[in-house]
Amino acid sequence: MKPIIESRTRPGENSLCLRLRIPAGLDWFRGHFPTRPLLPGVAQLDWVMSFGAELAPDMRFSAVDSVKFQRPVLPESLLELNLNWNPERGVLSFEYLALADEARRPASSGKIKLCPR
Questions:
Q1: Which residues pair with 43 in a beta bridge?
Q2: pTM (2 decimals)?
Q3: If phi over 0 gives left and psi between -120 and 50 gives alpha, with beta otherwise, what is residue 43?
């Protein structure tokens, strides 16, 4: 139930940038919602944790510090996911940007506290 990774870059030691295509056939869309499918926020957080493991491999979820869902993510969307790991604070920050028509619009963002396994 993962998106298609179109590109992956490491702008810094503690950061990761992914360009993601969101296929309409993902199970996340099933039943959420029948008349207008939307990618659930829990799916976005799941992907943050999955891709964030590359930056913080020995860490696990502790708490959501803050999260904002600013724009719905529809099937066949193109997103940019930016992750930044702050090991001193144990915080994984994320930002999803919706990419369309040369524009980059905030879709969601937040901070997740991590702790050692």
A1: none
A2: 0.95
A3: alpha
Which strands, in side-by-side order, build the sheet including 59-69?
4-12, 15-21, 78-86, 91-100, 103-116, 59-69
**Are the C-beta atoms of 83 and 14 separated by less than 8 Å?**
no
SS3 state of residue 77: coil
Q: Which residues pair with 111 in a beta bridge?
A: 66, 93
pLDDT in tens, 60-80: 999 998 999 999 999 999 999
Task: Tell me the pLDDT tens digit for each residue of 72-105.
Answer: 999 999 999 999 999 999 999 999 999 998 899 9
- Tell me whether the omega of the peptide bond preceding residue 61 falls within 30 degrees of 0, making it cis: no
- Give the other-Cβ count within 10 Å of 62's Cβ: 13
Percent helix, strand, coil in the chain, to 5, is 15, 50, 35
